[in-house]
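Mods, move this if it's the wrong board.
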Amino acid sequence: MNHDVTVFRPYSFRVGQKIRIEGSRRGGDWQIAAIGEHTITLRCPVSKREFEWAAFCYLVEEEHDAVWPQKH
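Not the wrong board. Structure tokens:
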């Protein structure tokens, strides 16, 4: 049986990339300053302050008529 499924995947950031986060306490415009194994460092384009956080952003995609659950 097929269903509509929302898929979340970790996003592959690039250093220097300009991003906008919406709907989160980290909301606003940021530049990717550094990428660690499990962390992302964001730089504020206004104050230039940097904040390192555990990786948290995901690319979301809607799949329609998808098999769920998937067999691995």
